[in-house]
Amino acid sequence: MAVGHYENFPVASLLLPAPLRRPVEIIYRFARSADDIADEGDDPADVRLRKLAEFRRQLDAPVDPLFRDVAKLIAQQGLPLQLFADLLDAFSQDVTKKRYENFSTVLDYCRRSANPVGRLLLHLFKQTTESNLRRSDAICTSLQLINFWQDVEIDYTHDRRVYLPQDEMARFGVGERHLQEKLCDSAWQALMRFQVERTRALMLSGKDLGKALPGRIGLEIRTTVQGGLRILEKIERAGYDVFRRRPKLKALDWPLLLLRAV
Asked: Can you give the pTM of this predicted structure?
């Protein structure tokens, strides 16, 4: 699923120690399945919300194999159930909320849509110090923001969803006409430059997590950080025109990412 899906959240890679690959795969499968209910297919909103409500019920009373795997993992590893519930809360919000009035509301969404994944991994690694959790949140929020900025055109075309804060769009003179017409003018470039620079600063504030964690786990985190930074570079090099070509990692990027990570 991780390889086949269009998003690029790098999980369960060969860099992870073998004993952790199955637990990470279960967490990813749970998150990916729930997120796809919110975002994929043609179901109306009420059907999507009912399906996500069923996910919540099965967290407490697992029946399907996926939820039995999740329940077993929670029991074995002492994972906080609330982190799984936070993911479902964020995905349910995606069904109904299409605009974000300011950056604080975007960060609140990231707190529930992305940060739980990093926190769950730290629980698996038995590395849940306060500084590690804070750095993990910074990395995961940055990865979520990077996904927003690279997918501006996809989100708007597919679901008329805009994660760019509305007050910042107004401040830079950007309106939905830019999204409708795929207009990359000076106002759009200024807005996206602001988003990219802020996101990079947030990512860099968490990057030392990759040094704090041992061995291959630390290398996995450092590579993930470099992957996010590389996407930001690609957005800049495209002149912030994310409409014509979605910035993404390619095969030739990976040697560079590993070199930077090492």
From this structure: 0.90
